[in-house]
Fold these 2 entries.
Entry 1:
Amino acid sequence: MRFLLRHLSLSYARRHLAKTILTLLGVVVGVTTFSSIKTAQDALVVGIGSTVDRVAGKAHLQVTMEGGVPEALQERLRNLPGIRATSPVIEQIVVPEKGELGSLMVIGVDLLGDREMRDYGFEGDDADLDDPLLFLAQPDSALFTREFAKRAGLATGTSLAVKVPSGVRKVTARGLMSPKGFAQAFGGNLMVVDVYAAQELFGRGRRFDRIDVRLQDGVSVAQGIELLQKALGPAYRVETPARRGEQMERLVANFTAGFNVSSAFALSIGIFLIFNAFNVSVNRRRRDIGTLRALGATPRQVQLLFLAEALIIGLLGGALGCLAGTAFSQALLVSMGQSTEMVYGISGSGIVHLTPAIMLQSMLLGLVASLVGAWGPALSASRISPTEAFAKGAFQAKAQRRVGPRIATGAALVACAAALALSSAVQGNALVLCVLLLGGIGLVLLIGPLSRAVLLALGPLLTRLFPSAGPLSSDALLGNPRRSSGTIMAMALSLTFVLGLGGYMGSTRLTIERWMDDILTCDLFVRASANFSRPDFLYPGAVKGEILALPGVRTVESYRAIRPQFRDRQILVGSVEMDTLMQRVRYDFAQGDRDSMREGLINKEMCAVTENFRDRFGLGVGDKVPLNTPGGMVEFPIAAVIRDYSSDQGAVFLDRKVFLRHWQDDRVDIYDVSVKPGTDPGRVRDAIRAKLSGRYPALISTQREFKDEIGKAIDAFYAVMRITVLLALGVAFLGIVTSLLISVAERTREIGILKALGALPGQIARSVVLEALVLALVGLMLALPAGNLFASFMEGPVARAFTGWAMPHHYPWEVLGQLLVALPLVSFLAAGIPARQAAGVKVTEAIEYE
Amino acid sequence: MIRILLKPLQFLLAAALLLPVTSAPALAAPDARALLKESENRHRTKTQQYSGDLTVVNKEGKVRKKGWNSYRQGYAGDSKNLIRFTDPPEVKGVGFLSLPRPGSENPDQWLYLPSMKRERRIAPQDRDASFVGTDFNYEDMEEFDHEKYKVSLQGEETLDGQPCWVIAAIPLEKGSRSIYQKLTLYLRKDILYLVREDLVRKGEKEPAKRLILSDIKNVEGHYVAARMEMTDLKKGSHTTVTLKQISFNRPQPASRFTLQNLTREGGD
Amino acid sequence: MLQLKDVVKSYDGKSTVTALAGITLSIAAGEMVAIMGPSGSGKSTLLNLMGGLDVPSSGEVLVAGTDLAKQNEKGRSLFRRDHVSYIFQAYHLMPTLRVRQNVALPLRLAGVPAKEAEARVERVLAEVGLENRADHLPDELSGGERQRVAIARALVTDAPLLLADEPTGNLDSARGREILALLRSIHGRRGTTIVMVTHDREAASACDRLIRLRDGRVEDDGAAPGGDR
């Protein structure tokens, strides 16, 4: 075996270096996609966790409360036994005016005593808080990490402009932290300010985001939790930083789980590419194999030889893919991080590390993928009889198999997948996996024969349309049906993916837009935070009166949303003045009706829940929702179930009076302002702006603008998915390139003859481009029905499982339109190198090629 | 039993010994508590005020200067203290208030920051934190009260040509807490005035900091060190306060040592 | 028709290999010439130079008045398209194209309209006697038939120069004879200049003239012996 490998395979690889590299490329592409996605995903999740951990410092426990922890709590905590130190914290993400520096995590701490909690690395030669008194006395004081300061060109005493809720503020560096422990959190993009300055800066009032607690030696964490919980009551959450990190990680991990699908997908495409490459390699070396067999090699030896080659290529490809993946993952991570920040208000640090685990997985994957891909070709190579191998020219057209059973099996599998999706036998991730697996295999079985049929039918048409290049392309495509159908398969699967996800995103967007038209009916929205899920600033409740007093204002509603944990999920509890709200919005009821909701919410302290809340938690009209309030647990009976898209985790709505009574917190996220008929909202907007200016941050949007902004948030939610779609296209692109390069390489002799027959380089090149185009378009044709099925699956069972919302189907015309423009371009680009190569084939060499 | 009997005896002995202290320092070693008590009695004043120049020199020799006005009412364990920064302009108005608490608890301390328009209480956990970036911590800002320590005479030593009593003081921690394991006090024999303090942190053996009081003057009949220097022996930095315009026993308005006054714009 | 002056062709590798070491010869229009010689004597190289598939290291290759040595790749392609056609030992047909399409290929490449091409294909197929095989795939034909398809493909462009590389090499002697007769009759009817590289004495004797090569030089040039013309 070693002998064969060394002499036969190695010399082949050396002689056909380009082709060997192509085979390798198949593995590399697959593994790169997998490892980049996985690395970015892990980095994001771990980054979030480790940021929580690092920022926590020596804190054993963190006390939080929905809406913020009142200042007075700190004194209460200090007086409890077993507590060594407490420290208030406010956390906020801001963006420097120079956006390229990346988001900054602002941590407001009480620097007077925070050293019990966190190590700032001031001690020693290389670190210094320049003047602590100055730091405290000046509200613009901030600390930065050395690393960030270097990037931003900051020195002690110089200032940096950052965007905070009330506008752009200059903060002055009063000290630099050494990169260890705490200062490594959030990738070093850290800004430490005084916690009281942070209250002011971020509208926290007299509240902190949390209080970090360090226990006395000898007090266990469990004891600490018990002690604090008993002393503080259920409205406060007492958690270890690790658990808090875990919860955030879980939220984000759920969100990025969509990437697993893309990873799997990329890998299967990688397998195709490998399969293709090995197939071609077997065909090309048919004579060598025949000679081997004639010389007495057993079929098993031949098979093993090919598998050994696959093994080496797999290992090599795995390693290379791993490296390339790490390079790509950084960009991926940035995009994922932006999405999670927009959607959940959680940001991780932006540093990617290639972990040994991912490395191992990637290598293994490359290996398995190449072995799987090479298995079939290796088997067929082993079955080559010596005489058959020496027969010239005959083998290429002879690769047909019985297609009947194959089509039947494929159709049956697809039907199975559809049935499974419609029934509720399997749920959640398992459902997605099963359906995709069954459907995928079914499609693979179907696409081969179908693509061949389509190509055969297309042949004459091509010849008619392109008299000179047409027959050449058609010959190339049909000449090696396995290669062509393999490429078309990869293409069709990619496009199925693109159309499916595109359709799903489109439907979601449309549904939410319709919902917004029903709900967002007031004229102006006044809010302090650009981020919808993380209030950067809250208005005092009294601002309502000020706005209402302005001329032209008809009604003002105060919307406040908190995001408490409910049965391990972060739901949304929204409150607003229901009496005026219900006069202007149109709810779509799943249970109950307008009157029951009105009566229940306004007069009976009941709540309304969203449909996805009901489906998730099994609580509908007649049930009660138990919610933790500062005064203890309160049960709110459900008056109505509405279709609403405020939260993908489920939402509960209360009348504002009820909320105020139980939560004792009158701050407001958004003021919904309706103007009197005939009044220009623009003028009212100016009046509100003038009224609030200098006191509060005010982002005032008209109805249209507000809807656009929510649209942007939805887009952010799907940004990850959109990357996946791009990835799919990228993989398809690479698939075409590889296939064409192999096609050209394989047909060198034919191209030589064509040239001898008078074909011009341009003609040959054009035929290669045409070949690419046909591959892409046939792929698209086959992907149309499959994509539609996939979209329906995403919109129905998958969407329901992950968001609780079922989306009505909406055909992705716009995606199709984009594809019809993009595909020819992509295939044109993909054909570039192969076409040039084909055009440059030397006739004499080509003819002597065999 | 013995202790009860001994106590009055001690007093007698101390009284007998203390009379000739100034004239006959070479007599047998007196009791540390008695020395400290006598010192307190001798130097006690009702009020004190001065304006101080604060100089912090860090290890690298970088110098930061500040100016403050200091007001004190009462003495040792029952003293009230207000410091108001006057210089440089960036920190002008920053205030520090220390008020005794009943019993033997640590005093309450607040720092006021005009830019935030609010005071913040110094938590017991923060007693080791540096007082506004100096080598003093918040505990050092409390007036020394020997009653909160178990004291014992360690011997005698001559500092700068002045013979001194060396007294070890170990915090009793009855209700109060200290960050120190032990203080070593150097009391000048002739005037019973504290001229040096070595501070050993809990869990440590060697002193972490050293306070030296020098430039001792007699102002309005009271001895006072016009220069205090705290050296952080580990960090290699030191902080000097020089006292100017010192006056004693001036009546202080009662409202001066209140939170209300601390948070008043420009309140002294 | 064809003039070679001091043509040298050498390949640079680890050591320089001289395939043709200074060949001067001329072939008149309408001649039918056989080139023979042992393996490695430079036969195929000579043929490739004549067809503009390759360029000489030095010397001139004048075909129909054009010096191919001075043309670039595209120029030679265009020249080939108009003046030269090929027949190969291994036929080199496109396996997935029907006979008709295979024959039409050069016309299609030259941009001849479909209708006209079709007519010309019919004509040459009749000429080689394959009119009833027009819709078969190459796989479905015998070796002789395949070579006839190749000849038809060579004829369809009406190129004045036909280069054949061992046209009978893969055929048994009977089929070989048929092919030679076909070439002979084409030569007679069309006046096409034919240059044929062969190992086969019988094939050589079908020609007017025989050029023998040895070690890259012309060893002998004269009338073919025992021709059955």
Note: Chain C has one domain: 2-222.
Entry 2:
Amino acid sequence: MLSGNLLWVLSGTMLLGIAAGITGTFSFLQKQSLVGDAAAHAALPGIALAFLLTGQKELPILMLGAGITSALSVYCIQWIVSFSKLKADAAIGLVLTVFFGVGIVFLTVVNRSPLGNQSGLNSFIFGKAATMTKADLLWLFMSAIIIIVVSLLFYKEWKLLIFDPVYAKGIGLPIEMLKATLTVLIVMTIVTGIQAVGVILMSALLIIPTASARLWTNKLSSMLILSAAIGGIAGIAGTFISAIRTGLSTGPIIVLVAAGIFFISYFISPTGQIRQYYRKRQFRKQGDVG
Amino acid sequence: MYALAVENLSVAYDKKTVLENACVTVPQGHLAAIIGPNGAGKSTFLKAILNQLPNKVGKVEILGKAFEPKSLVVGYVPQRNAVDWGFPTNALDIVLMGRYGHMGLLKRPSKQDKLIAQQALASVGMQDFAERSIGQLSGGQQQRVFLARALAQNADIYFLDEPFAGVDAATEKTIIDILKALKVQGKSIFVVHHDLQTVKEYFDYTILLNKTILASGATEDVFTPEQLQKTYGGKLFMMQHV
Amino acid sequence: MIEFWVIVTGLLVGITCGIAGVFLILRKMAMIADAISHTVLFGIVMAYILTQTLNGFWMLVGAALAGILTAYLVQLLHSSGIQEDAAIGVVFTSLFAAGVLLITLFAGNVHLDVEHVLMGEIAFVPWNQWSLLGITMPKAVWMLLFVLIINVTFLVLFFKEMKLATFDPVYAASIGLPIVFLHYAFMTSISFTTVAAFDSVGAILVVAMLIGPAATSYLISKTIKQMFIYSMLFGALAAVIGYYLAKLWDTSIAGMMAAAVGMLFMIVLIGQKLIERKRKAHMHKLEIT
């Protein structure tokens, strides 16, 4: 049953899960999880626009378009927050919906054009992991590996940047450059992933593994490893389950596997609900006695 | 009957206990300072008294009864930075909020409510700013508006969380004069306070707090170097030199 | 007549969402609305699975329950120490994924496709009519009117309570306002709004209309009443502009309305900054002379 193609897809979604688990941790710690959601939705106009302008559906071209609009959306959010009195949540929500709306506008134009009908761009909304071609997967492998390697290279600089940006600046680190690199990498993760899981659920891969890992540990290094592992496992298990039963789209299953891991962690982890329940009971008892 | 009677009050956030077995009784008619180092649990103490925290044990009585929000006996003035001053409304509207408890659900402010709010605003010297957007007020003016709201509520016992933080000298003077006037009317006032220099001048009653109540009583009895050393530990030494 | 009903629907979405959006922005809950707009899918699918019909009433109930569930779960995770943005992200992606999966498993052959939920098809609105009290109007218009009435009633009844609970929840609780009730009542009204609007214009436009006009009016309003008026105006304006632009380029009406929301925001933001700068320069001049 493990046909050659399935093996390829499995390793692809696993690498994607690992990469998203790593970059997701950094965006989580910067409290930017939902910016990732906006950036993922904002990939849609880029894909459609790239197709409209070039008339080609080669993956690298579409990915480039997605990357540009996705990065633009992150920039827009930062600009609105610093330039107006609007708070981050409103800025994110506004940018997300407007970019996605524009994406739908372009996509409708594509679908009405004679060559657009067969372009298959619609699959970027929900992803199509199971039917990815070898060429598609090759791109996925390459960018996932770049993401993982670059993250490891910048590990200690980003750590400092997140925990103490003032100090980081003080010792002469190029803060703006580091921030920009991190944004680029998160956008790259999104662009890599949308083809497999789609623009709507991509943010789940950035958020859920990290949020689960956070329940188990306070240390950044262990958080990264755990988050990458959970992302990888969700990728493999999700792809496998959807391959067993044809007709199930891969993206939602991967997300649900990750959600399952989160759910379990939420109850049994050291900071989890079961421990907290006992701690609370003990606290109440002490109070009654004292 | 005590203004405030707290028995074995403990509060825990997530993992750590912030307040442990705090016990204190304060008679009516005092202007009391709540003093302690940063992170000692002063704001937590206020919020626990006002029943705002889920994870707490112990007994709290205000004027002989368990705290009942609807009774409007308690006028609470939160920390100024606890709210969003970009909120689109004007000063008078904020003060009118002090009347909401008296109006009841579904009712709109009456002429009398508006009059009371205007008087409260005037008593803090802000009558000329009634129509001003709250975002355009200075820190001191915002704090005065907050105090005016509590005054408009016409409570019997007041809790103020750091009312002097980041305000100008004129505002500090206005606020303390109003609090002293409230005391003369027989009301009880509790103030979370930071500036040790002014404790003796402002307050006739002092509560020292660090994780628990360490001492309480008339300021001249409690506000002593030994007691402060106990509350602040080594930190006090630094403060005296600042 | 067809065009008329499409524009009426757009206007109603703009006005209804514009009203509901004001407190959403002030309570800093824009992303919770985004989450709810995704999770209503889950509620609708569950309603279909349980009742085996595509009855509008049960869909409304299912969606409202899903909305409350979303708000509740986010609150639960947040209060147990998970940062809020991550809590929102976990909850809505999980429930949305569950909704998509349930559709493929149990409702594959009914008219319940996910793209429709997300993007809607406002152009089809006039074809689905309902008669009530002898008046025949598109179903979407009925639903939106109904929700508009609910929202306005809620606000008229609890305006001052919502204002205080939003501005200063701790003080509100200290004088006995039912802040938890208000929170969930408000979340319910957001869910109703979402479900009434999404059938015609799709979840994405609902969120755009909930957040955009209110955020735009937040920039320039001095009082909440002003904010309500501007927000409704911007919502209605975005609907009309979006409709005609979409017609011009023969593309998605809902998508274009969302784009128009963004354009209005940019125009107002830049205009406001320019006026501010001019005023500052003027003041500066006065100071010098």
Note: Residues 8 and 134 of chain A are 8 Å apart (CA to CA).
